[in-house]
Structures are given as C-alpha cells and as structure tokens.
C-alpha cells in the first residue's frame, strides 16, 4: 500500500508508480482532474474480478483535539496505530461506507450497500458483492467485488462513499478508493478537496466504452445521502429510511 500513502503526501497531477514485491512488478495509476479516466479491462478480455477498496486514516493534525491531556503527557500513545489513536480520542467517530449504484443493460437499477443489508450478489444480478463494514479504515478496509465475467451486463456503475454515522467530516480524513483490476493494476482515486459538512461523495463512474470498461474520476460531494447522489446522476430510484446493525437513519 506504499502508493496509497504516497498519494496523501503528494497531490499533484496523475502519476504512475512502480513497486517490486517478490520479484514481481506492480503499478498504480492515480486519477486526477487532468487525467480523469483509465481502462479497467482490455478490449475483448472482460473476465475475472474487479475489486474496489475503500481505505482511510485520520489526519495526524487532528489528534488530541478532543483530549485535555497533551500527547507529551501520554508518550505511549505514539505507538498506537493512527486509526486507533484517533478513534480513542474521539476524532475517528466517522463511519465511512463504500457503496455502488448500478444500472444493468436490461434496465434494472439498484444499490449495493451495507445500509439495509443490500450486500448484492457476485454470481447473480447485479454481479456485485459488498464485503466488510470497516469502522476504522484499517488495512482490511471495505471491498466491493465486481464480476467481470458478466461485464457485458453493466450499463453504468457509480462507486460512492457516504458517512452513515458520526461527524460529516470528509475534510478530517484522508480517504482513497482503489480499483484493482483482474490484471493487478491499481487505479487510485483520492477523495481530495472535500466540502465541509458533506455527507456523501460520488467517486467513480464505470461504463463500457469501445468494448471495455472504463473508470472516470468524479469526486463530487453532496450534503445529503444516497437520494442526493441519485438525483445528481439521474438514477431515478425511490429512497426511504434505512437501517444498519439495528440502527435507523433519519
């Protein structure tokens, strides 16, 4: 994940980075405003699994805001992982959730998300499965698995992130959504320039173009939840109250 952290240290134009692990070369591409698109599949080679991963960490400048005791009085705190350190101080009370609006070629539309238990299905429509509901942004993260064996069924997919619970503070965390292609290419999209108080962010639009799936960087923030993302992209669905783990959202 070295490329993930390097994104947060550098926020310039699109970059391609190379890492060597066990003698194998892997690379990551970062989508930016100047270079907003990247192919996810080769022409005529739409098989395998596309993994979409959400990871985040609280900014270190926020640590200690909610504590009356300065860090120098608690020296052992520096040995805690950043995510847990932030959470224990009341900073990381943000529940980032990964989700995906889908529209299939047959006209069916829906959403895959933890809210309401709409976790999707990998082998049957919508051929998208959500795994994990991470509260700390740790390495395990949250993942969407998209079945590329049925790529010809996808008309458009919109990957988005919303804050279900806690402070609406995209601006207090560094978040990255990574699209991992079946060929092992990492396409990273940083949730940069967040709007203060925003609850949701449309991250990437995936559509077929000239025989292959292509991802386009969106990174558009809204102050509401899924229904506002829907209106922004014209999905035309009906929305109501949802629950996650026994809690209701007003």
From TrEMBL:
InterPro entries assigned to the protein according to its UniProt record, in alphabetical order: TerD (IPR003325)
Protein name: Tellurium resistance
Classification lineage: Bacteria, Bacillati, Actinomycetota, Actinomycetes, Kitasatosporales
